[in-house]
Specification:
By secondary structure, the protein is of the alpha/beta class. The chain has 2 domains: 11-86 and 189-260, HAD superfamily/HAD-like (Rossmann fold, 3-Layer(aba) Sandwich); 90-185, Hypothetical Protein, Haloacid Dehalogenase-like Hydrolase, Chain: A, domain 2, CATH 3.30.1240.10. Helix content is 29%, strand content 22%.
Length: 264
């Protein structure tokens, strides 16, 4: 009689938007919630790995009982209640904001880990409001000087894909586009936060599993880890994934976990 397969703990890092959470407002499909609970019951480690600010990640994670986090695109980690968040590269932000000013591109920044963006003109607010993208409180300060800001945690610019393609200065910036009307300047290497948690916990590469759907997940799809792209993922991510599962709203996470035998 064949013996029972020995349990080996895996360490899962899930992107949030478009991976474990879908729709507007965001919710977790029943199949995904079932899979996450089963993974925890089996003794596996569960964490999110998101571009969201910590302050926008914690309420979501609290709602679904997820205590471990990689936030801020890899610049934030939460483990055993310890929160550590680094700001963006200050010179990078100064340089790109100078370009935005020169080209009259509306921009905003988060100066703390809070749901508030600061901008110099009402134009930024008006554009975001028109496109129903105002998901933060807005502070308009005509005297806002990027050089006098100590820490910047996120940047935003109202620029369409055509303008983006022609803006050479963006090649020196880490950013992601989630909507047609604007880009988010944020860290884009979630593997940095994952590596930090691995070092703290002594996790081996073979035990790390990452799930994602967008371009800001590319850098965490490392060859030494098991990487799973959602069926609704961008093609760039699917091409480098170890496995492409079903769509997030079609039981994709549960399907992948059953495929690899992580849950019954």
């Amino acid at each position: 009689m064949e013996g029972k397969k020995e349990f080996r703990k895996k360490y899962f890092f899930f992107d949030i938007d478009g991976t474990i959470a879908i729709g507007m407002p965001k919710y977790i499909p029943e199949s995904t919630e079932y899979a996450l609970n089963k993974l925890k019951e089996k003794g596996h480690f569960i964490s999110v790995a998101t571009g969201r600010l910590y302050t926008m990640t914690k309420p979501f994670c609290d709602q679904f009982g997820i205590s471990n986090m990689v936030t801020d695109g890899g610049f934030g980690t939460v483990l055993n209640g310890q929160v550590d968040i680094k700001p963006l590269d200050r010179q990078m932000m100064i340089d790109i904001v100078d370009v935005f000013e020169e080209k009259n591109i509306p921009w905003a920044i988060c100066m703390a880990d809070e749901r508030v963006w600061h901008t110099r003109t009402k134009k930024f607010y008006d554009i975001m409001e028109k496109d129903k993208m105002n998901y933060m409180d807005t502070v308009i300060d005509p005297n806002l000087d990027i050089r006098k800001v100590k820490d910047i945690f996120k940047g935003f610019a109202c620029i369409n894909p055509e303008e983006e393609a022609g803006l050479e200065a963006l090649k020196n910036v880490t950013y992601t586009r989630y909507r047609p009307g604007y880009i988010v300047i944020e860290p884009d290497d979630k593997s940095l936060g994952i590596r930090k948690i691995m070092d703290l916990m002594g996790i081996e590469d073979q035990d790390v599993v990452v799930f994602g759907d967008n371009t800001n997940d590319i850098k965490m799809f490392r060859p030494e880890w098991t990487s799973i792209a959602m069926g609704n993922a961008v093609e760039e991510l699917k091409k480098i994934a170890d496995f492409v599962t079903k769509d997030a709203d079609d039981g994709g996470i549960e399907y992948a976990c059953r495929h690899f035998g992580w849950i019954d």
